[in-house]
Design goal:
GO terms for molecular function: 3'-5' DNA helicase activity; ATP binding; DNA binding; four-way junction helicase activity; hydrolase activity; metal ion binding. Pfam families: DEAD, Helicase_C, HRDC, RecQ_Zn_bind, RQC. The chain has 564 residues and is an alpha/beta fold. It has a 7-stranded parallel sheet, with helices on both faces. A 6-stranded parallel sheet has the order 8-13-12-9-11-10, sandwiched between helices. A two-stranded antiparallel sheet has the order 14-17. Helix 19 (431-439) packs across helix 21 (465-477). The N and C termini lie far apart (67 Å). It has 24 helices and 17 strands. Bound molecules: adenosine-5'-diphosphate (ADP) and magnesium ion.
């Protein structure tokens, strides 16, 4: 008898080739597929665009019975189901977008065993009626897509996902696959616990996206900066993320007025508008989507060439996922972040509205990590991947910091002041208070705790609050300090801090870019709303010229803005 595993491998490969039309599996897909076919749970962590769907779609076609796929967004389901149906797969979705008749039809198909995959919204799946129906069927597999939605620690928590934790006890014999692109440790643990996965086959793929060029500019005149950036992309697709719906509308309007094919997308628009915007984008009928974070989860558009963050994202998970929508075809792509200090204050304001102290703490910590990424003077990829627990051997050589390293200065004395201050306050306070002490602030907290009697009180009056924060964040990144997330992000010294404190080591740090830029008037080629139409026409002409000359729209590595 041949090894059944070999049988399954052969079957999986022929399904990949015949149904999906791909020649080979990507790294790790095959093993997890074979393992799922064999009935073992799976935990699949792959970056956006990594090819997670096939990991459950192929087992769904091979195991008998229907595979139930849980997906958080209706648009996402529709997308995947349309693709599958186009490939001749018996797939359907069951959600609130269906009419009563359509819904009945899907349930009939399900009942008669005429479906291999059924995509369901979590609240539909966990309704008593639906569960009763399923119990008579014994599904082949539960695939929980975007599984990070189950974790309160995750950046996209959805309460409806919590009830999915009952699936294991309701259907003990049915394997469960959890899929996500969110890598951070606590979220992973939450997913495995909540879904009660039993010794899941784990796939953890690298998070590096070497074809994405990460860069950041100080936000001075964002719209003009955006237009300058867009000059390099005459016809190519891109996404611009803004923090608010209002900003989305504004930017989309201005871009349209300035001759771009741009459309707005946010959760305040009618579902049919959103659907058609998304479809236009997928079909390349719209070049640029200006959107809130509502746009993009699971969107499979290979040729997105750039993602711009017009405002600072709330956390690194979101930033990584959003930028990850660029360059899914493996060709060069750019991620540009416009970074302004006002955004930090704004976001902090949002976060502080949180009534749940646990949540407040996590979100603040995440925001700080995001700011630290933005302020980083070292290889961006190192910081980004480091956040997800991945260490890279060498700097990427392709981000703004690698290509154009920020200016450094001898920060030894400042760093020593900061570290001794952390020590003097008993390693028991967060960044805000440490900076207050350094700057000799006269607030109630300082007085109550009598920190104005410390030897470090006021020793850093000559340095601005922003700059102290910047310095402390660098000390954290470089490992001189650590933040205790579980305890209000208080700062603690690490072993590494000793020699520096004792004066046995000198330290160079990066100058903050923003301080350098602040107040400095920049020359801008395009004027915002009152743009000069003649000049703008000229710029459009240049873009077109490059596109015609090269046969493709201009792609210029960031930092080289020459249009010639
Ligand atoms: P994810 O859900 O991980 O973000 P998808 O499952 O949507 O990613 O897959 C991303 C793209 O990669 C899709 O276009 C998919 O068809 C393609 N893909 C997946 N597996 C393979 C493969 N083995 N060979 C070629 N293309 C693949
Ligand atoms: Mg997916």
């Amino acid at each position: 008898m041949i090894d059944s595993r070999d049988d399954e491998r052969a079957l999986a490969l022929s399904t990949l080739q015949q149904v999906f039309g791909y020649q080979n599996f990507r790294a790790q897909q095959e093993d997890v597929i074979v393992s799922l076919i064999g009935g073992r749970d799976a935990f699949i962590l792959m970056p956006t665009g990594g090819g997670k769907s096939i990991c459950f779609q192929i087992p769904a076609l091979i195991r008998s019975g229907v595979t139930i796929v849980v997906s958080p967004l209706i648009a996402l389901m529709k997308d995947q189901v349309d693709n599958l149906v186009a490939l001749g797969v018996r797939a359907a979705c069951y959600n609130s977008s269906l009419t009563a008749g359509e819904g009945r039809n899907v349930l009939d198909q399900l009942h008669q065993g005429r479906l291999d995959l059924l995509y369901v919204a979590p609240e539909r799946l966990m309704s008593d009626d639906f569960l009763n129906l399923l119990r008579g069927l014994t599904p082949a597999l539960f695939a929980i897509d975007e599984a990070h939605c189950i974790s309160q620690w995750g950046h996209d928590f959805r309460p409806e996902y919590i009830r999915l934790g009952q699936l294991r006890s309701l259907f003990p014999a049915v394997p469960i696959a959890a899929l996500t692109a969110t890598a951070e440790k606590q979220t992973r643990a939450d997913i495995i616990n909540c879904l009660q996965l039993k010794d899941p086959y784990r796939v953890v793929c690298g998070f590096d996206r070497p074809n994405i060029h990460y860069s950041l500019v100080d936000k001075v005149k964002p719209y003009q900066q955006l237009c300058e950036f867009l000059l390099r992309y005459s016809e190519q697709s891109g996404i611009i993320y803004c923090l608010s719906r209002k900003r989305v509308e504004e930017v989309a309007d201005k871009l349209s007025r300035d001759g771009y094919q741009a459309a707005a997308y946010h959760a305040g628009l009618a579902p049919e508008v959103r659907r058609s915007v998304q479809e236009d984008f997928l079909r390349d009928d719209v070049q640029i989507i200006v959107a809130t974070v509502a746009f993009g989860m699971g969107i499979d558009k290979p040729n997105v060439r750039f993602v711009v963050h017009y405002d600072l994202p709330k956390n690194i998970e979101g930033y990584y996922q959003e930028t990850g929508r660029a360059g899914r075809d493996g060709l060069p792509a750019e991620a540009l972040l416009l970074f302004g200090y006002a955004d930090i204050a704004l976001l902090r304001g949002f976060v502080e509205k949180n009534n749940d102290p646990e949540k407040l703490r996590t979100e603040l910590h995440k925001l700080n990590a995001m700011v630290a990424f933005a302020e980083a003077g070292i290889c961006r990829r190192r910081v980004l991947l480091g956040y997800f627990g991945e260490v890279i051997d060498a700097d990427c050589g392709n981000c703004d910091n690698c290509l154009n390293p920020p200016e450094q200065y001898d920060a030894t004395e400042y760093a020593r002041k900061a570290l001794s201050c952390v020590y003097r306050v008993g390693q028991n306070f967060g960044m805000g208070h440490v900076v207050d002490v350094l700057r000799g602030a006269e607030n109630q907290r300082i007085k109550t705790i009598k920190h104005d009697r410390l030897s470090t009180y006021g020793i850093g009056q000559d340095v601005s609050r922003d700059d102290w924060n910047h310095l402390l964040r660098q000390l954290i990144q470089l490992g001189y300090l650590e933040q205790d997330v579980a305890r209000y992000s208080i700062l603690k010294l690490t072993e590494q801090a000793r020699p520096l404190l004792r004066g046995e080591e000198r330290l160079k740090l990066c100058k903050p870019r923003t301080r350098v830029q602040r107040g400095k008037k920049k020359e801008h080629k395009i004027k915002g709303q009152n743009y000069d139409p003649a000049l703008f026409e000229e710029l459009r002409r240049v873009r077109k010229q490059i596109a015609d000359r090269d046969g493709v729209p201009p792609y210029v590595v960031f930092g080289d803005a020459s249009l010639a």
